[in-house]
Amino acid sequence: MIGKTISHYRLTDLIESGGMSSVYRAEDLTLERTVAVKVLKPTRSDPKSTQRFIQEAKIASKIGHPNVITLYDIVEQDNENYLVMEHIGGPSLRERMEKKIDVLEVIRMACEIAAGLEAAHAQGVVHRDVKPENVMVTKSGLCKVLDFGVAHIVDTARLTTEGRVVGTPFYMAPEQLLGKEIDARTDIYALGVVLYEMLSSQMPFAAKELEALGYQIVNVDPPALTEIAPEVPSDIGAVVHKAMAKNPVDRYQSMSEMLQDLKVIRAQLEAAAAGGSEQHVHPNRRRVIIWTGVALACIAAVVVWQMMKPMPPPATIETKSSIVVLPFVNLSGNPAEDYLADGITEDLIYALTKTGLRVVSRTSAFQFKGQQRDIRDIGERLDVETALEGTVRRDDDRLILTASLVAVSDGYQIWSNRYEVELSDIFTVENEISMSIVQEMQVDLASAQRAQMLNRYTEDLDAYMLYLQGRYFWNERTVEALKKAQRFFERAIEKDSNYALAYAGLADAYLMGVNYSTIPAQDGFAKAKSAALRAIEIDDQLAEAHASLALALWIYDWDWRSAEKEFERAGKLRSGYATTHHWYALFLGFVGKYEEALAQIEMALRSDPVSLPVNSAVALMQYTRRDYDAAIAQSQRTLELKDDYYPVYTVLAKSYAQKAMYAEAVAGLQKQLELTGRRPVSVAWLGHIYAVSGQRDHAMELLAELQSGIEEGRAKPFHMVVIHVGLGNLDEALLWLEKSAGSLEFDIFTIQSDPMLEKLREHRGYRATLEKIGISLP
Question: Which regions of 335-397 does DSSP assign to beta strands (E)?
């Protein structure tokens, strides 16, 4: 068989051969990936075996869970059927058990196996053969349940004769051994046996003869786990023995119920490990798992008091719909590796925004980078229910990563895992974390959503690392950092010319470069548009590229209709992308759709609650709607976040001016000038306010300053428009507006909506001037 090609899968070597089938490693010639191909042995290719084989494919394809092996394809060729599955590349749980596994790791694995079986049971599937051989462990340590060849679909016709025993005797429940009706509780029993074996390194029943073994399983209680493995906390023993109860009625009644107790135990063990404590687990639940008096005596009185307090059960996961991914901590000791930790954080944020969860955007999440803040305080400030925290350490080509999902209301750890993998497996780890979060928060994903969430856009590790460095420097928002970002994105594209995300990043670098004057506006917008179009050509589902294209169409091409379509497209593709809502709100304000603009900026605020630009834009929208009190209050809230955030002082000052509170308005703009070093736009608005408040002499002084700025290339024509409107020189203002043609000034797009420019809009020559410079009013 080795060397044979099945459809587009070439068999390269044999992985294992069992009684009924063989599994081969194979190369997917189309997608250039390694897969596993399972084939029935010729001697077992009778109709019933073939029917069971096809049933396995149907069952596996229904489940779709990160803790269940993924089925890619079923191929019929030369009258043979082949199952094509994901290739794990790690050991089976049986092989992993050859070395002692510590208690915490056992419980972590148990949670993952239980989660996979829970997903199967949700589809009405009972595995019937849960054992260490049917669990594989990936390179990153994730457990995956496989081999549904003897699985039973509840409430459907059986493929076995009534009363026939199917499974592996050591792990069979009494009812299964006796050929009675089975259900999900049969798998619960088997998982209990697997845990017993993992924790004690021996089977609960030792008889070698099948008849004697059957008698023990049906009639004899196994030795207490804590007697043969004293290091195992009694709470864990209680879970295992409850799972292995003889009568199904006395077991956990669902895998979800068992998983819930396992999660509580795991969280407490992890908390104890993190604090260096030897305390045992105490899941204080309705299904009480009681601490022994001996265990209590071993714990200091203060800990006893804490543990004995009534502990609320973990918040129900069904209510969890919001999350912040906090910046992963770089543990390498080398600040040059910050880009990797930040990049992984951003990738997880990006993936989770495609799931329907409300995900706090990067800007707000990174406000807490390097801070030691109480998780409850963060949750309250960001208005989220859960937080994902993690650490990253790179050791040459090895990556060690931890991740924990926490309920912010009480700090309860919902899920956690540790990964130690080759750097080349970083995409797999990110996907596994994303899927685990989706699983723990019980999000139902459509297949298209799942594909988008797991899309990593490149298989080239070098290109990915260059992209991460590009995003890292782009987020620093300095002149030099933006130049570096552009170079890193370009190098990523050189490595992978079809890397859509890198093109989108390059478009953003050009757009931000225009804002920071690292590139001339005409050149920057043209290159941004080109990069965005290339990204969309590669992947039309990329929201970032559509948003960048929309901005370029708006400001560079002045193509309002096309810009609006692109903004709408970006919002539909990724509803949690705050930047789209932010830019779209500014656009809608320009075209006079004020209520829609406010709705968009409020959506941006939900995703990015402590973002300074977004909070400032909320104030701008309120000012544009002439709700000046609200604009003042929002501006002040923004300054509470950062009192030297200079852009918001413009909105604050103009709102005061519209209320004739000129002293406050002047003070706001003078503060802005102090922070920016006499930025021309600030000078223009200060001159305007001086003029309308009767301080014409001060206004004329500032007009002269702007005139010098125009001659020196520092000021722009629109700044002259602003000050002349304040002075009442409307004809002069229109002449300067005409000179704005082709200048690509963003401020020009406030002309139709700014309340302080209303007198200019009422001038008889206003519309004609706009038509001259190419602005067609919506």
Answer: 358-359, 386-395
Read off the pLDDT of residues 590-608 as tens digits, 9 standing for 90 and up: 888 888 998 999 999 888 8
- 8 A C-beta contact, residue 387 and residue 378: yes
List helix spans (H) across 516-642: 521-538, 543-555, 560-573, 578-590, 594-607, 612-624, 628-641
- Tokens 């370009």, located at residue: 490
Taking the CA atoms of 707, 713, 714 and 719 in sequence, report the sign of the dihedral they define: positive
pLDDT band at 667 (very low <50, low <70, confident <90, very high): very high
Q: How far is CA 136 from CA 113, 141, 255, 710, in A?
A: 10, 9, 19, 70
Task: Please state, for a pLDDT cut of 90, what percent of the chain lies above it.
Answer: 44
DSSP letter at 503 equals: H
Average pLDDT along the chain: 84
Report DSSP letters for 231-244, one per residue. TS-HHHHHHHHHHT
**Residue 711 and residue 214: Cα distance in Å, rounded?**
98
Cα 121 versus chain centre, distance: 27
Other beta carbons within 10 angstroms of residue 577's beta carbon come to 25
Q: Please give the structure tokens belonging to residue 757.
A: 């420019």
Buried residues in 677-702 as b, exposed as e (16+ CB within 10 A):
eebbbbbbbbbbbbbbbeebebbeeb
- Tokens representing 264? 């509580």
Retrieve residue 450's tokens.
């799942």
- At 46 the pLDDT is 58
CA-nearest of 522, 483, 538, 540 to 506 is 483
Backbone torsion region of residue 390, taken as left when φ is above 0, otherwise alpha when ψ lies between -120 and 50, otherwise beta: beta
Smallest CA-to-CA distance from 69 within 89, 86, 93, 90 is with 86
Question: Rounded CA gap, 756 and 724, in Å?
Answer: 12
Higher pLDDT, 332 or 470: 470
* Residue 206 vs residues 169, 174, 177, 616: alpha-carbon distances, Å: 12, 16, 16, 71
- Which pTM does this prediction carry? 0.58
Which pLDDT score, from 0 to 100, does residue 60 have?
Answer: 66
Helix (H) or strand (E) holding 339, with range, is helix 338-352
pLDDT at res. 254: 94
Beta-carbon count within 10 A of 630 CB: 16
Catalytic residue set: 129
Domains of the chain: 5-86 (3.30.200.20), 93-308 (1.10.510.10), 317-456 (3.40.50.10610), 678-778 (no CATH)
